[in-house]
Amino acid sequence: MRYEAVFINSLGYQLAPVVISSSEIEERLAPVYDALRLPVGHLEELTGIIERRWWGPSDTLSQGAIQAASKALARSSLQASDLGMLVYAGVCREQFEPATACRIAHGLGLSSEITLYDLSNACLGVLNGMVEVANRIALGQIRAGIVVSCESSQHIMEEVMDDLVRDPRMDRYLASLATLTGGSGAAAVILANEELSRGYGHRLRGGVALAAPEHHSLCRWGMQLEADGKYRQYMATDSGGIMKHGLALGQQTWRRFLQEMEWTPTSIDRVICHQVGAPHREQVLQRLELPLEKDFASFPYLGNMGTVSLPLTAAMAEEQQFLQPAQRVGWLGIGSGLTCLMLGMDW
Q1: Which residue of the set 97, 113, 195, 293 is catalytic?
Q2: Is position 123 annotated as part of the catalytic site?
Q3: Tens digit of each residue's pLDDT (9 = 90 or more) over 213-257
Q4: How does strand 202-211 pair with strand 339-346?
Q5: Residue 132 annotated among the catalytic residues of the structure
Q6: pLDDT in tens, 170-220
Q7: Among residues 26, 92, 102, 123, which one is catalytic?
């Protein structure tokens, strides 16, 4: 896919307020660590994650998304009335129906002449939403749109920790490690045509999407029926399988991405990757022949925030001037399924 006149006009994000350290999680898992003879500090050493965040007791997903979207609008060259589309792309949603996008649009005061819906594709949701909006802009159907997401990791993490304490087996612990890296936050991305951007933002050049759906069972998060007749959340991840097959898909997508963009690894100035943890980051960059200094990481203090991780990390990288005007930048996303989407832009 290639674009000629689509811009990432602005980014916005909202951090969840409650900081949860890896050592606090290990304190809650003390009976598990004793039973399995795991050393204190194992979680941080294995993942590189020092802390992550949770929302407060009264915070809602739509509130976090509205805060991030409001910040993106304040930093943009647009008015809320310019938006012709809003996509909510989080894994976490407030209810089955209506779409969480509707509540966010109401909170932002958007007009009735807008397309609204939720989109879900594991950790790739925001990138997929960006492609949806970019395509509408390229077709001339809208002049601008916004993609928003808010993720919350607290409930599923507490469920997993309680399960581990009740049944402290090594196989369960290993299947739960990815869940324990989870963080919470919100992010928003506004895209617009060239006329509305008025010199703001960053030109979206194009991208490539590939999938390996034969690996759809490697990471699963959903509801399951328990023996007591009640449904409970569960999450299980084959971290080794995700790493092996995810790296293979990422490397395949990367080759196609470089061809599509007519770029080389040395001609790319910066990359923002999905935030998983230290081992994943190192192996991904090594496979793609990219030095660590070209990548910006937020996972040590924010964890894996799912769909929010990549756009929020990019927003922080821009704030800290890691991303500079005229740089070639790649956003490299991969999600359960397995699916992979890489986008290229002139910053």
Answers
A1: 97
A2: yes
A3: 999 988 888 877 777 877 888 788 888 888 899 899 999 999 999
A4: antiparallel
A5: no
A6: 999 998 888 999 999 999 999 999 999 887 789 999 999 999 999 998 888
A7: 123
